[in-house]
Amino acid sequence: MAITQGNWVKLNQKGAGPGARSSHAITVVGEKAYAFGGEFKPRVPVDNSLYVFDLNELTWSIAEVTGDIPPPRVGVTMAAIGQTIYVFGGRDATHAELNELYSFDTCTNKWTLLSAGDAGPAHRSYHSVTTDDQHMYIFGGCGVAGRLNDLWAFDVVGKTWAKFPLPGDNLKGRGGPGLAAVGGKIWVVYGFAGMEVDDVHFFDPDTEKWVQVETTGEKPTPRSVFSSVAVGKHIFVCGGEVDPSDLGHLGAGRFTHEVYALDTETNVWNRVEDGSGGGDHPGPRGWCAFSSGRRGGKEGLLVYGGNSPSNDRLDDIYFFSPCLDQA
After folding, report:
1. pLDDT tens, position by position, 101-122
2. What is the C-alpha separation between 172 and 169, in angstroms, rounded?
3. Secondary structure class of 172 (helix, strand, coil)
4. Active site residues
């Protein structure tokens, strides 16, 4: 059966945390979430502190770090493999696109600059990231000369970048898409390509081929800058922007609150009943920090902050877990 239900839980934070922001990043290592970057005012990076949220105690702290500390940035991505966090790209206070790759060792609290310049992907922000056991994948985003549609992999063992073949014209350059590693393939879902789009593609590393996927079912409307997670064979899409603001990034577009699940084996979408309208539901938002994670023994999606329909930055945290017994 299709996954048709899921549950949100609002995590009531204790003490002072990073505060409200959007265009930031978060990732989970064990029972702690690490947050970095973001803005309160459009395009103005807030800080470069690394905030740590204990998913059990619900308390925030600031990591005492050493090494090559990344400067403040927005539109940045983070991902974790094992005990190490990887941070790539973003946009600095001068609005310049960045392409440095940093690692952060959560055992030693040390930042390390791994690559910069011509060693990896071109400069970009508002790109997407996903991982498997050995690779961090980077796709798309806003580059120096426009929106990108390239896919790269960083091998965390060999410390090397690999660029994959470019897709055809069907997969236009875009910002804010969903990216997921499922079934040995790298999936690109929706995004903003001059307009909100609703196409789905995957790249097969074994054949080095791109495939456009024809999906059916209860398809989400076109959207971007949503939160997403892969659990098992399903890719979940939560909220996002369905109509951009006339002011671009300076304004708030029209956001949605729904959750949808794509079965990557049947290519069928289903709307997920997730208690919308309740106190434990995040409501409409986009430009959030989000990450896969586990809480209470359940695998799911952590969502922190983002932008609201009133153009106010948010500071709340929610955890979504699908009802996998219906899968």
Report:
1. 999 999 999 999 999 999 899 9
2. 6
3. coil
4. 91, 147
